[in-house]
Design brief:
mainly alpha; 87 residues
Length: 87
């Protein structure tokens, strides 16, 4: 095995893995209304406050933000129910 083959093997084994995102479920603690912003914040690795500010600013734009929030509130399982479903 020459140096080039050894370097190729080392480079291919050092491939960075993407961090896994947590499952999308509404938390039972730390939520304000329905837990949708907290769930999205946890999923995308940001703070819940940041996600809430982004949501409020997006409400200034035309679109169905409130309907989307209500739909996610209905569709996303609560954290304790999601945990029970995976067992």
């Amino acid at each position: 095995m020459d140096i080039v083959e050894a370097a190729d093997r080392t480079a291919s084994s050092d491939v960075h893995k993407e961090p896994q995102m947590s499952s999308l479920a509404r938390p039972t603690h730390g939520r304000m209304i329905g837990g949708v912003c907290a769930a999205l914040a946890r999923r995308f690795g940001t703070s819940a406050t940041t996600m809430r500010v982004v949501f409020l600013v997006s409400c200034l734009l035309p679109g169905p933000q409130f309907l989307l929030y209500i739909a996610l509130w209905i569709l996303l399982p609560a954290e304790d129910k999601a945990r029970a479903a995976t067992w």
